[in-house]
């Protein structure tokens, strides 16, 4: 079946040159954006209850832009002046680029992975003498602590924000040819909002192995997967699939 409509379970991109907009224009499909999950910051006093003293850490591990935002929010709420000597280990270039919102890039020690957390781990291992803080959501991919434990480095997780399920009741009678997910939390949100959801002819697109597993655990058939060697991004995976089923070049 041809693809005409796509629902991406994330906020709409704020940049004009988003590849989603290019995909929409070139392949003549309609793409809507509705965040299936949202984050809510944890209060500084609750972070203190986790026995977190920011001054005790010499390095920060940042896995997402949310982690960046909430680390600096907590630092401000705790009236902690982030030292120039602090090392930043960013999971991807996108996270490192976003860090510039808060620090002068050229004056900081910033180490950047390629895309996955495993690809960042050699850089962390190289600096085993550091004391690492991992600001995260209450829902952390298990591969992250497993990888850090295997590296045998001094690290601690701190929950700086919670991942919550959005109210999707407005979508109850709206149907899309493709639903796009980026995390197990998105899959959870789908079934919390619509316990009786049946896939039928809807195609499911997922990003990441943990999201694939979450979908398959719910007996969903995954039709589109990213990243792969041929399609490292979700938009590339969508483009390839749509061209195949719609017969467009």
Give the topology:
Elements: E1 5-8, H1 19-27, E2 30-33, E3 37-41, H2 44-49, E4 59-62, H3 65-77, E5 87-90, H4 93-99, E6 109-112, H5 117-126, E7 131-137, H6 143-151, E8 154-165, E9 178-181, H7 184-193, E10 203-207, H8 209-217, E11 222-226, H9 234-246
Parallel strand pairs: 1-2, 1-9, 4-5, 4-7, 5-6, 7-8, 9-10, 10-11
Antiparallel strand pairs: 3-8
Helix pairs in contact: 1-9, 5-6, 7-8
What does this structure look like?
The strands form two sheets. A six-stranded mixed β-sheet has the order 3-8-7-4-5-6. Helix 1 runs parallel beside helix 9 (234-246) and helix 7 packs parallel to helix 8 (209-217). The protein has helices at 19-27, 44-49, 65-77, 93-99, 117-126, 143-151, 184-193, 209-217, 234-246, and strands spanning 5-8, 30-33, 37-41, 59-62, 87-90, 109-112, 131-137, 154-165, 178-181, 203-207, 222-226. It has two domains: 5-36 and 166-246, Rossmann fold (3-Layer(aba) Sandwich), CATH 3.40.50; 40-163, Rossmann fold (3-Layer(aba) Sandwich). The protein has nine helices and eleven strands. The protein is of the alpha/beta class and 249 residues long. The two termini are 17 Å apart. The mean pLDDT is 93. The chain is globular, with a radius of gyration of 20 Å.
């Amino acid at each position: 079946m041809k693809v005409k409509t796509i629902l991406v379970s994330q906020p709409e991109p704020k940049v004009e040159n988003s590849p989603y907009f290019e995909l929409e224009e070139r392949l003549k499909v309609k793409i809507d954006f509705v965040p299936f999950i949202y984050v809510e910051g944890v209060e500084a006093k609750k972070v203190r209850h986790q026995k977190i003293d920011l001054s005790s850490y010499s390095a920060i591990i940042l896995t997402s832009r949310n982690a960046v935002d909430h680390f600096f929010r907590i630092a401000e709420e705790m009236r902690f002046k982030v030292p120039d000597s602090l090392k930043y280990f960013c999971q991807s270039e996108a996270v490192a680029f976003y860090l510039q919102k808060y620090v002068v890039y050229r004056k900081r020690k910033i180490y950047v992975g390629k895309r996955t957390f495993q690809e960042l781990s050699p850089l962390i291992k190289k600096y085993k003498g550091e004391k690492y803080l991992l600001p995260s959501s209450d829902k952390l991919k298990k591969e992250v602590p497993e990888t850090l434990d295997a590296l045998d480095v001094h690290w601690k997780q701190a929950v700086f924000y919670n991942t919550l399920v959005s109210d999707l009741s407005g979508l109850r009678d709206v149907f899309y040819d493709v639903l796009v997910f980026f995390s197990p939390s998105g899959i959870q949100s789908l079934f919390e909002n619509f316990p009786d959801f049946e896939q039928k002819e809807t195609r499911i697109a997922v990003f990441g192995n943990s999201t694939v597993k979450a979908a398959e655990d719910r007996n969903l058939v995954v039709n589109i997967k990213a990243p792969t060697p041929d399609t490292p991004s979700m938009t590339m995976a969508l483009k390839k699939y749509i061209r195949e089923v719609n017969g467009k070049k």
